Amino acid sequence: MGYLMYKSISRLFLFIVIINISLFAKNIDINSIVKKSVETNKHLLIFLHRTDCGYCESMLMFTLDDDSVKEIVDKNFVFLHINISEDDLIKYNGFSGNGREFAKHVGYNIYPSSLFLNSATELVYAVPGYQDKYQFQLVLKYVDSGAYKTMGYQSFKKKMGSVK
Fold first, then answer.
1. What is the pLDDT of residue 121?
2. What letters, b where the CB count within 10 A reaches 16 and e where it falls short, cover 106-137?
3. Which domains does the chain have, with CATH numbers?
4. What pLDDT, on a 0 to 100 scale, did the predictor assign at position 161?
5. Which residues of the chain have pLDDT under 50?
6. Cα–Cα dist 111/108, whole Å
7. d(CA 73, CA 66)
8. By three-state DSSP, how is residue 80 classified?
9. The pLDDT of residue 5
10. Tell me, what's the pLDDT at 164?
C-alpha cells in the first residue's frame, strides 16, 4: 500500500511541475516583433542571457539599467531579452525551439550576447560577451547610425575617438 501511495504522489508532483513549467513559458515570435521595428524604423536588439551567469547579471544591472543606455535603447531600438535558462518557445525565420537552441541556431551561444537585426530579420551585428555602459553606448551608436553597412566596428571606434 505504501509503494502505491508513493507512486501516486510522485505522479501527481510530476504533473504539477509540468503544468507549472507550461504556464510560465512564453511564445516569442521574433518575426512579429520585427514588424514593430519596421513600423518604428528601428533595429531589433536581442539580449541573450542566462540566469546563472554573473556577467549577464552585471550587464543587466549596470549596463542595460543605466539611464543613458536605457534612453538610447528606448529611443532607437526595439528591445527583446531572452533568458536561455527559461523554457520559452522562440520562433524566427522558420526556426522553432527554446532559447538555448535559438542561440545555437544564430551562432551565439556565449552569454551575454547582444544581437542586432534589421527590418528584414537579418542579423546585421552581434556583440558576444559583457559590455560596460560606455562600450555598449558606442555599439548602439554604431548600429543605429547604420555605420555597420560601410565600415567595421574598429574603424568606427577610431572615427568616434574611442581608444577602448
1. 86
2. bebeebbbbbbbbbebeebbbbeebbebebbb
3. 24-160 (3.40.30.10)
4. 87
5. 10, 12-23
6. 8
7. 11
8. strand
9. 58
10. 53
Rounded to whole angstroms, how far apart are CA atoms 5 and 117? 53
The three cell numbers of residue 57 are 547579471
| Angle subtended at Cα 36 by Cα 33 and Cα 38, rounded to the nearest 5 degrees | 115
**In this predicted structure, what is the pLDDT of residue 85?**
93
CB atoms within 10 A of CB 105: 16
- Beta strand pairing call for 43-49 and 77-83: parallel
| CA–CA gap between residue 65 and residue 136 (Å, rounded) | 12
Selection from 94, 78, 96, 90 nearest residue 143 by Cα = 78
Give the β-pairing of 113-117 and 27-29: unpaired
Which residue pairs from 86-90 have beta carbons closer than 8 angstroms and sit at least 24 positions apart in sequence? 86/24, 86/25, 86/26, 86/51, 87/21, 87/24, 87/25, 88/25, 88/26, 88/27, 88/28, 89/25, 89/26, 89/27, 89/28, 90/28, 90/30
Note the helical H segments in the chain: 2-24, 30-40, 54-58, 67-76, 99-106, 133-144, 153-160
* C-alpha distance across the termini of the chain, in Å: 69
Question: What is the three-class DSSP state of 41?
Answer: coil
